[in-house]
Amino acid sequence: MSRKKELSPELKAECDAAKALFVSKKNALGLTQASLAAEADISAAAVAMYLNGTNPLNAKFASVLSRLLGIPVERFSKRLAREISGMTSVAEAPSASTLSAADMVRQMLDKQGKGLTDTARRRLMAAAEADDAGGAIEIDYYRPGVVGDEVWIAHYDVRAAMGGGQIPHDYPEMLQDVRVSPQHLREMGVEFKEHFHLKMVTGWGQSMAPTIKHRDPLLVDISIREFVGDGIYMFSWEGHLYIKRLQWLGDEQIRMISDNDRHPPQTIRADETFIQARVLLVWNAQLV
Protein backbone atom coordinates (compact mmCIF):
# COMPACT_ATOMS: atom_id res chain seq x y z
CA MET A 1 0.00 0.00 0.00
CA SER A 2 1.42 3.36 -1.00
CA ARG A 3 1.74 6.00 1.68
CA LYS A 4 -0.73 8.88 1.46
CA LYS A 5 0.91 12.05 0.18
CA GLU A 6 1.31 14.72 2.85
CA LEU A 7 -0.52 18.01 2.44
CA SER A 8 1.34 21.11 1.35
CA PRO A 9 2.29 23.53 4.16
CA GLU A 10 -0.48 25.91 3.06
CA LEU A 11 -3.20 23.24 3.22
CA LYS A 12 -1.84 21.82 6.47
CA ALA A 13 -1.90 25.34 7.99
CA GLU A 14 -5.60 25.63 7.07
CA CYS A 15 -6.36 22.33 8.87
CA ASP A 16 -4.34 23.40 11.92
CA ALA A 17 -6.17 26.74 12.12
CA ALA A 18 -9.58 25.06 11.72
CA LYS A 19 -8.78 22.54 14.45
CA ALA A 20 -7.53 25.21 16.84
CA LEU A 21 -10.67 27.28 16.38
CA PHE A 22 -12.87 24.20 16.85
CA VAL A 23 -11.03 23.19 20.03
CA SER A 24 -11.22 26.73 21.44
CA LYS A 25 -14.99 27.01 20.91
CA LYS A 26 -16.42 23.48 21.10
CA ASN A 27 -17.05 23.40 24.85
CA ALA A 28 -18.82 26.75 24.95
CA LEU A 29 -20.96 25.77 21.95
CA GLY A 30 -21.55 22.16 23.05
CA LEU A 31 -19.97 20.75 19.91
CA THR A 32 -18.22 17.43 19.36
CA GLN A 33 -16.58 15.87 16.34
CA ALA A 34 -19.64 13.58 16.10
CA SER A 35 -22.07 16.52 16.00
CA LEU A 36 -19.86 18.29 13.47
CA ALA A 37 -19.88 15.13 11.35
CA ALA A 38 -23.68 14.93 11.52
CA GLU A 39 -24.07 18.56 10.43
CA ALA A 40 -21.65 18.05 7.52
CA ASP A 41 -23.27 14.68 6.62
CA ILE A 42 -19.94 12.86 6.79
CA SER A 43 -18.39 10.32 9.14
CA ALA A 44 -16.61 11.24 12.37
CA ALA A 45 -13.48 9.67 10.88
CA ALA A 46 -13.69 12.09 7.94
CA VAL A 47 -13.92 15.03 10.36
CA ALA A 48 -10.82 13.78 12.18
CA MET A 49 -8.94 13.53 8.87
CA TYR A 50 -9.79 17.17 8.09
CA LEU A 51 -8.87 18.50 11.52
CA ASN A 52 -5.68 16.44 11.80
CA GLY A 53 -4.43 17.54 8.39
CA THR A 54 -4.71 14.16 6.64
CA ASN A 55 -7.15 15.46 4.03
CA PRO A 56 -7.42 19.07 2.80
CA LEU A 57 -10.44 21.13 3.79
CA ASN A 58 -13.13 21.60 1.16
CA ALA A 59 -15.81 24.23 0.66
CA LYS A 60 -18.68 22.12 2.07
CA PHE A 61 -16.90 21.27 5.32
CA ALA A 62 -15.56 24.83 5.68
CA SER A 63 -19.08 26.25 5.31
CA VAL A 64 -20.50 23.94 8.00
CA LEU A 65 -17.61 24.66 10.38
CA SER A 66 -17.98 28.41 9.81
CA ARG A 67 -21.72 28.28 10.54
CA LEU A 68 -21.40 26.17 13.70
CA LEU A 69 -18.54 28.22 15.17
CA GLY A 70 -20.01 31.55 14.12
CA ILE A 71 -16.79 32.70 12.42
CA PRO A 72 -15.97 33.64 8.82
CA VAL A 73 -14.31 31.00 6.66
CA GLU A 74 -11.38 33.35 6.03
CA ARG A 75 -10.35 32.93 9.68
CA PHE A 76 -8.94 29.53 8.72
CA SER A 77 -8.89 29.50 4.90
CA LYS A 78 -8.82 32.53 2.65
CA ARG A 79 -8.59 30.08 -0.28
CA LEU A 80 -11.95 28.50 0.51
CA ALA A 81 -13.50 31.86 1.44
CA ARG A 82 -12.75 33.05 -2.08
CA GLU A 83 -14.08 29.80 -3.56
CA ILE A 84 -17.32 29.99 -1.59
CA SER A 85 -17.75 33.66 -2.43
CA GLY A 86 -17.38 32.84 -6.11
CA MET A 87 -19.88 29.99 -5.89
CA THR A 88 -22.53 32.16 -4.21
CA SER A 89 -22.09 35.22 -6.38
CA VAL A 90 -21.75 33.74 -9.85
CA ALA A 91 -25.52 33.29 -10.31
CA GLU A 92 -26.53 36.86 -9.58
CA ALA A 93 -23.41 38.66 -10.76
CA PRO A 94 -23.51 40.37 -14.17
CA SER A 95 -21.16 39.04 -16.79
CA ALA A 96 -17.72 40.61 -16.47
CA SER A 97 -17.84 41.47 -20.12
CA THR A 98 -20.83 43.79 -19.48
CA LEU A 99 -19.16 45.67 -16.63
CA SER A 100 -17.00 48.74 -17.01
CA ALA A 101 -13.64 48.95 -15.29
CA ALA A 102 -15.16 51.40 -12.80
CA ASP A 103 -18.01 48.96 -12.04
CA MET A 104 -15.57 46.10 -11.45
CA VAL A 105 -13.38 48.19 -9.14
CA ARG A 106 -16.47 49.45 -7.31
CA GLN A 107 -17.60 45.85 -6.71
CA MET A 108 -14.13 44.91 -5.53
CA LEU A 109 -14.06 47.81 -3.08
CA ASP A 110 -17.52 46.95 -1.75
CA LYS A 111 -16.48 43.35 -1.04
CA GLN A 112 -12.86 43.66 0.01
CA GLY A 113 -11.88 47.29 0.32
CA LYS A 114 -12.90 48.05 3.90
CA GLY A 115 -9.28 48.39 5.02
CA LEU A 116 -8.35 50.94 2.36
CA THR A 117 -8.04 54.63 3.09
CA ASP A 118 -10.26 57.15 1.33
CA THR A 119 -7.22 58.29 -0.67
CA ALA A 120 -6.51 54.77 -1.89
CA ARG A 121 -10.16 54.29 -2.85
CA ARG A 122 -10.20 57.53 -4.83
CA ARG A 123 -7.01 56.59 -6.69
CA LEU A 124 -8.37 53.18 -7.66
CA MET A 125 -11.65 54.66 -8.87
CA ALA A 126 -9.85 57.42 -10.78
CA ALA A 127 -7.65 54.83 -12.53
CA ALA A 128 -10.70 52.73 -13.43
CA GLU A 129 -12.63 55.71 -14.75
CA ALA A 130 -9.59 56.70 -16.81
CA ASP A 131 -9.61 53.22 -18.34
CA ASP A 132 -13.28 53.59 -19.25
CA ALA A 133 -12.39 56.88 -20.94
CA GLY A 134 -9.70 55.20 -23.04
CA GLY A 135 -6.74 55.48 -20.68
CA ALA A 136 -4.80 52.69 -19.01
CA ILE A 137 -5.58 51.15 -15.64
CA GLU A 138 -2.64 49.99 -13.54
CA ILE A 139 -3.14 48.49 -10.09
CA ASP A 140 -0.18 47.26 -8.07
CA TYR A 141 -1.55 44.47 -5.89
CA TYR A 142 1.69 44.26 -3.92
CA ARG A 143 1.57 47.66 -2.28
CA PRO A 144 1.04 47.59 1.50
CA GLY A 145 -2.62 47.54 2.47
CA VAL A 146 -3.98 46.77 -1.01
CA VAL A 147 -6.82 44.25 -1.17
CA GLY A 148 -5.81 40.65 -0.43
CA ASP A 149 -2.52 41.37 1.31
CA GLU A 150 -3.59 40.60 4.88
CA VAL A 151 -3.23 37.13 6.39
CA TRP A 152 -4.07 35.51 9.72
CA ILE A 153 -1.16 34.41 11.93
CA ALA A 154 -1.92 31.94 14.72
CA HIS A 155 -1.03 32.95 18.28
CA TYR A 156 -0.07 29.89 20.35
CA ASP A 157 0.16 29.57 24.13
CA VAL A 158 3.71 28.21 24.06
CA ARG A 159 5.39 29.80 27.06
CA ALA A 160 9.01 29.71 25.96
CA ALA A 161 10.95 30.78 29.03
CA MET A 162 13.42 33.64 28.92
CA GLY A 163 15.08 32.42 32.07
CA GLY A 164 15.48 28.99 33.60
CA GLY A 165 13.48 27.18 30.96
CA GLN A 166 9.94 25.88 30.90
CA ILE A 167 8.58 22.46 29.99
CA PRO A 168 6.68 22.86 26.69
CA HIS A 169 3.04 21.81 26.27
CA ASP A 170 2.45 18.69 24.18
CA TYR A 171 -0.48 20.34 22.41
CA PRO A 172 -0.25 24.15 22.34
CA GLU A 173 -3.68 25.79 22.38
CA MET A 174 -4.35 28.73 20.10
CA LEU A 175 -5.60 31.72 22.05
CA GLN A 176 -6.16 34.32 19.35
CA ASP A 177 -5.23 35.28 15.81
CA VAL A 178 -3.28 38.28 14.59
CA ARG A 179 -4.05 39.78 11.20
CA VAL A 180 -1.07 41.32 9.43
CA SER A 181 0.17 42.39 6.02
CA PRO A 182 3.18 40.30 4.88
CA GLN A 183 4.24 43.18 2.65
CA HIS A 184 4.20 45.57 5.60
CA LEU A 185 6.24 43.14 7.70
CA ARG A 186 8.87 42.98 4.97
CA GLU A 187 8.99 46.76 4.77
CA MET A 188 9.67 46.79 8.52
CA GLY A 189 12.71 44.61 7.85
CA VAL A 190 11.25 41.23 8.82
CA GLU A 191 12.72 38.57 6.54
CA PHE A 192 10.82 35.35 5.79
CA LYS A 193 10.03 33.13 2.80
CA GLU A 194 6.36 32.25 3.31
CA HIS A 195 3.78 33.81 5.62
CA PHE A 196 2.40 30.40 6.65
CA HIS A 197 5.74 29.73 8.39
CA LEU A 198 5.02 32.58 10.81
CA LYS A 199 3.49 32.04 14.25
CA MET A 200 3.00 34.12 17.38
CA VAL A 201 4.26 32.87 20.75
CA THR A 202 4.59 34.49 24.17
CA GLY A 203 7.87 34.98 26.02
CA TRP A 204 7.89 34.23 29.74
CA GLY A 205 10.45 35.65 32.16
CA GLN A 206 12.85 38.56 32.52
CA SER A 207 16.26 37.38 31.30
CA MET A 208 15.86 38.81 27.77
CA ALA A 209 14.78 42.28 28.94
CA PRO A 210 14.94 44.96 27.71
CA THR A 211 14.87 43.35 24.23
CA ILE A 212 11.96 41.08 25.15
CA LYS A 213 9.85 41.81 28.20
CA HIS A 214 7.79 39.37 30.23
CA ARG A 215 4.68 38.28 28.26
CA ASP A 216 5.71 40.07 25.06
CA PRO A 217 4.16 38.42 21.97
CA LEU A 218 6.85 37.31 19.51
CA LEU A 219 6.70 36.65 15.78
CA VAL A 220 8.68 33.50 14.96
CA ASP A 221 9.53 31.53 11.81
CA ILE A 222 8.91 27.82 12.46
CA SER A 223 10.60 26.78 9.20
CA ILE A 224 13.99 27.60 10.75
CA ARG A 225 14.91 24.42 12.62
CA GLU A 226 18.69 24.79 12.74
CA PHE A 227 21.27 27.45 13.55
CA VAL A 228 21.46 29.90 10.62
CA GLY A 229 23.48 32.70 12.24
CA ASP A 230 23.70 34.59 15.50
CA GLY A 231 20.27 35.69 16.69
CA ILE A 232 17.40 34.94 19.05
CA TYR A 233 15.87 31.48 18.79
CA MET A 234 13.17 29.40 20.42
CA PHE A 235 14.73 26.04 21.24
CA SER A 236 14.58 23.11 23.61
CA TRP A 237 17.54 22.04 25.70
CA GLU A 238 17.57 19.39 28.40
CA GLY A 239 13.80 18.99 28.11
CA HIS A 240 12.97 22.69 28.59
CA LEU A 241 11.90 25.35 26.12
CA TYR A 242 13.86 28.62 25.93
CA ILE A 243 13.98 31.90 24.06
CA LYS A 244 17.56 33.08 24.14
CA ARG A 245 20.22 34.62 21.98
CA LEU A 246 22.47 31.95 20.43
CA GLN A 247 26.04 32.45 19.21
CA TRP A 248 28.06 29.80 17.38
CA LEU A 249 31.41 29.05 19.02
CA GLY A 250 32.62 26.31 16.71
CA ASP A 251 33.52 22.72 17.50
CA GLU A 252 29.78 21.91 17.87
CA GLN A 253 29.36 24.37 20.72
CA ILE A 254 26.86 27.22 21.10
CA ARG A 255 26.81 30.10 23.57
CA MET A 256 23.36 30.64 25.13
CA ILE A 257 23.11 34.33 26.06
CA SER A 258 20.61 36.41 28.03
CA ASP A 259 20.24 40.11 27.27
CA ASN A 260 20.90 41.13 30.89
CA ASP A 261 22.88 39.83 33.84
CA ARG A 262 20.08 37.85 35.48
CA HIS A 263 21.44 34.65 33.91
CA PRO A 264 25.12 34.26 32.96
CA PRO A 265 25.97 32.91 29.48
CA GLN A 266 26.18 29.14 29.15
CA THR A 267 27.99 26.96 26.66
CA ILE A 268 25.79 24.15 25.34
CA ARG A 269 26.34 21.42 22.76
CA ALA A 270 24.79 21.86 19.32
CA ASP A 271 23.75 18.20 19.14
CA GLU A 272 21.77 18.60 22.38
CA THR A 273 20.04 21.80 21.26
CA PHE A 274 16.83 21.45 19.25
CA ILE A 275 15.84 24.69 17.52
CA GLN A 276 12.08 25.12 17.05
CA ALA A 277 11.97 28.57 15.44
CA ARG A 278 13.83 31.84 15.05
CA VAL A 279 12.43 35.00 16.62
CA LEU A 280 11.90 37.69 13.97
CA LEU A 281 10.01 40.44 15.76
CA VAL A 282 8.94 41.44 19.24
CA TRP A 283 5.32 42.64 18.99
CA ASN A 284 6.26 46.01 20.39
CA ALA A 285 7.96 46.86 17.08
CA GLN A 286 11.48 45.92 18.22
CA LEU A 287 13.39 44.13 15.49
CA VAL A 288 15.79 41.43 16.70
From TrEMBL:
Kinase as UniProt keyword: no
Pfam families noted in UniProt: HTH_3, Peptidase_S24
UniProt keyword annotation of Transcription regulation present: yes
UniProt KW keywords: DNA-binding, Transcription, Transcription regulation
Gene3D superfamilies: lambda repressor-like DNA-binding domains, Umud Fragment, subunit A
Taxonomy, superkingdom: Bacteria
Residues covered by the HTH cro/C1-type domain: 27-76
The protein's name: S24 family peptidase
Organism: Pseudomonas tensinigenes
